[in-house]
Amino acid sequence: MSVPVLFDLLELCGKKLSWSERQVEQWFRRRRNQDRPGVLKKFREASWRFGFYLCSFLGGLVALHDKPWFYDLHEVFVGFPKQTLLDSQYWYYVIEMSFYGSLIFSVAVDVKRKDFKEQLVHHWATLTLLSFSWCANYIRIGTLVMLVHDAADVLLELGKVFNYAGWKFTCNILFILFTVTFMITRLVIFPFWLIHCTWVYSLEEYQPFFGYYFFNTILVVLLLLHVFWASLILRMAIKLVLGEMKGDERSDEEEESQDEAQNHNHTHCDGSANGFSNGH
Asked: Catalysed reaction per UniProt (predicted)?
C-alpha cells in the first residue's frame, strides 16, 4: 500500500470514528500484534525444547561415557563398516531423528524468526545427516555430533525460558554461558575434532567412496550455519556488554508506538533465541 493511500485511509477512519490519527495508528498496530505469537506461546515452546535437549544431552553422556571413541577419536572408524549397533545408540538415534523430523513438520506453527530459512536448512541438513549416517553405519561419529550440538542447545532454550519469564539477570548469565559453550562446541570441537576425524581418521580404515564425500559435505553445511549464528550471537553479546540489548534479534517482535512504549516502560532481557536463537 502506497504512503498517500495509507494516510488517506487513516484520515478516513479518524473521521468516521472521531479519533485522532494517533489513535487510529495505535488501533491498527494493536490489531496486527494480536496475530503475532505472545510471550506465553514462546515460553511453552522454549520449555518443552529445553526439556528435550536436557534429557537428550544427559542420555547421550550416559550412552557414550564408557565408550573408547568418546575419548580417542581414532577409535571411531576402527572396524568400519562392520561395527555392532548398540541398544543405546539405536534409541539415541530414534529419539533425535524423531525430534528433528517433528521440527520440520511443526515449523509452520512455531514462532517464526528472522533466520527462518536458515533454521529450515539446519533441520533438513541434520535429519539428512542422521539418516545417512544410520544407513552408512557412521553411528559412532553420528552420536558424537549429536552430543556436541545438544550441549549448547540446553543453555539456549533455558535462557529463552528465563527471558520470557522476565528474569533478566539470570537470562544474561545464561546468555554468556551459552555464548562460550556455542563457540567451543560448534566452532572448535565440531570442525577441528569431529570433521577432522571424518576427513582424516576415516581414511586410515577405508578408501574414500560416495558416502565419505556426501557425509562430509553435510557436516560442512552445518558448520557454515554455525558460523552464521555465531555472528548473530557475537553481535548480541556486544550489545549486551554495551547495554544496548533490547530483545532477540531473530524474533518477530511486537511493535509499539512511542506513547505505548513509555507507558509500559518494559525492559527486555538479551533474549537470545538461538541466538538466544536454535541453533539450533
From this structure: sphinganine + octadecanoyl-CoA = N-(octadecanoyl)-sphinganine + CoA + H(+)
Confidence of residue 262 (pLDDT cuts 50, 70, 90): very low
Backbone φ, ψ for residue 113 (5° rounding): -130, 175
Q: CA-CA distance, 158 to 47, in Å (whole number)?
A: 7
Rounded Cα distance, 8 and 161, in Å? 43
Task: Give dist(CA 160, CA 274) in Å, integer.
Answer: 9
Output the CA torsion 52→97→152→70 (10° steps).
110
Q: Tell me what percent of the residues of the chain surpass a pLDDT of 70.
A: 71
Measured in whole angstroms, how far is the alpha carbon of residue 215 from the centre of its chain?
21
Cα dihedral: 239, 243, 246, 247 (round 10): 50
Q: How many CA atoms lie within 13 A of 266 on its CB side?
A: 16
Q: Give the separation between CA 271 and CA 159, rounded to whole angstroms.
A: 7
C-alpha grid cell, residue 277 = 536463537
Mean pLDDT to the nearest integer, 178-203: 96
Domain spans of the chain? 38-252
Q: What is the mean pLDDT of the chain?
A: 81
**Which H or E element spans position 164?**
helix 139-165
Q: What is the pLDDT of residues 64-122, one digit of tens each?
A: 999 999 999 999 999 998 899 999 999 999 999 999 888 888 776 676 666 677 778 88
Cross-strand pairs, 113: 251
DSSP state of 251: B
What is the pLDDT at residue 174?
Answer: 95
Residue keyed to cell 560448534: 186
Residue closest to 87 by CA, chosen among 62, 108, 50, 123: 62
Region for residue 209 given its phi and psi (left: phi exceeds 0; alpha: psi -120 to 50; beta: otherwise):
beta
